[in-house]
Design brief:
22 strands, about 30% helix
Length: about 400
């Protein structure tokens, strides 16, 4: 984890703006778990006060979330705790170094240095120009994020992170594998899921979903005296998804533009994962998974939580009339999720999957949707379309880690 402390004079304008802007950026990038971000002051002028109302107003304008907080002063111990102490201006740099007893490790820098500039960020307390301050903060944080991505080298997005009993992921290209299945031992070790039983479907862009039970993973006797051995992996032919309620079974799929869709029924401790390309989406693989969980585990669709992961976005998924016609024939709402340009159509696969799930009984508020477009973000993702037929595949995975 990289720990960052933003610093300004009073900790109610510039440093808090930096804190919340960068938190928003890393959250949208899906890598917020890699960072600890805070802010502080070099002075005691505003100790205990919340963020300046004018700063909050500007953050509201830009759609940046923030939380109530209390201004605090930098202390010497911050130097050892934080990896980076990032200041708004030259005076902040000098005062931070004084408080910390110097800067032997060269941790104290100005934010705008990351953007290739030596200028300071003007204090809007005096200038009253919160727009200009925000512009500098955004420029500096965007440049800082590029540096952080290089240093942190995140390997994956965390899925269903709010559920401690689960481990869910979608890998970045850093952890992609060559083809199928998704078998990355180093990555599994990193997430402490190396000992799980891996489920490897041989995907065919269909709608078949396998059910994995205890009988599928146990080998030999299980009579209470002799503990069964477990298989290390299960290969399932002609399948694009799986469901299970067995602890320690890692459901996986591979992707290079197609969507991963994750399912969790907390009451019955059951999970599902499907590969939804355009054919699977058109065929309704996501609602099929809801149906299968209801049949196998008694899941109530209205209580199932779903996350539609990264994949090609509506901005980039261009199809011909024949694909559009298939969606139109299958789903009456297809026009709500398509945009025609000349003789081509741009389809919103994420939107279609969400609508299918709602019609299957899943509550809209229980459906999360990733903003990431695999085609549009080459720094993070492999893309079959963008790369003209890549063999590299990113992995999606979901496993119940323990019994409690």
């Amino acid at each position: 984890m990289i720990k960052i402390l933003f610093i300004c004079h009073g900790n109610i304008c510039r440093s808090t703006m930096c804190e919340f802007v960068l938190k928003d950026m890393v959250a949208k990038a899906g890598i917020d778990s890699y960072f600890e971000i805070d802010s502080a002051a070099t002075s005691r002028d505003e100790l205990g006060n919340d963020t300046d109302p004018r700063t909050r107003h500007k953050l509201d304008e830009e759609g940046v979330p923030y939380a109530k907080r209390r201004a605090r002063q930098v202390v010497a111990e911050d130097y050892d705790y934080y990896d980076m102490l990032i200041c708004a201006d030259d005076a902040n740099v000098c005062n931070t170094a004084r408080i910390c007893g110097g800067d032997p490790e060269r941790k104290i820098v100005k934010l705008m240095e990351f953007a290739g500039s030596d200028r300071s960020i003007a204090d809007p307390w005096y200038t009253h120009d919160f727009d200009a301050t925000y512009d500098d903060v955004a420029e500096g944080c965007e440049a800082l994020l590029v540096r952080l991505m290089e240093e942190a080298k995140p390997t994956h997005l965390e899925i269903f992170r709010e559920h401690e009993e689960l481990c869910g992921f979608f890998t970045f290209k850093e952890a992609a594998v060559n083809g199928s299945p998704f078998n990355n031992p180093q990555f599994f070790e990193k997430l402490d899921i190396a000992d799980t039983v891996k489920v490897w479907p041989k995907q065919v862009h269909g709608t078949d979903i396998a059910v994995i039970g205890a009988e599928d993973i146990n080998v030999g006797s299980s009579d209470g005296e002799n503990q069964s051995d477990k298989v290390k992996h299960i290969v399932i032919p002609d399948t694009d998804g799986a469901v299970t309620n067995v602890t320690g079974v890692l459901l996986t799929t591979v992707h290079a533009d197609c969507l991963p869709v994750y399912f969790y029924d907390r009451e019955h401790r059951a999970i599902g994962l499907v590969h939804a390309g355009w054919r699977g989406t058109c065929g309704g693989i996501a609602p099929q998974c809801v149906k299968r969980m209801a049949e196998e585990y008694g899941a109530d669709p209205s209580e199932i939580q779903v996350f539609i992961g990264p994949g090609i976005g509506k901005c980039c998924f261009e199809v011909g009339h024949e694909v559009y016609d298939e969606f139109k024939e299958k789903w009456s709402f297809a026009d709500d999720f398509s945009l025609k340009k000349d003789d081509k159509f741009f389809m919103d696969l994420k939107g279609i999957n969400k609508r299918e799930l709602i019609e299957a009984g899943v509550k809209p508020e229980n459906i999360g949707v990733s903003d990431h477009c695999t085609f549009h973000e080459p720094e993070l993702f492999c893309s079959y379309r963008r790369e003209g037929g890549t063999y590299m595949r990113m992995g999606a995975g979901l496993v119940i880690k323990d019994k409690h």
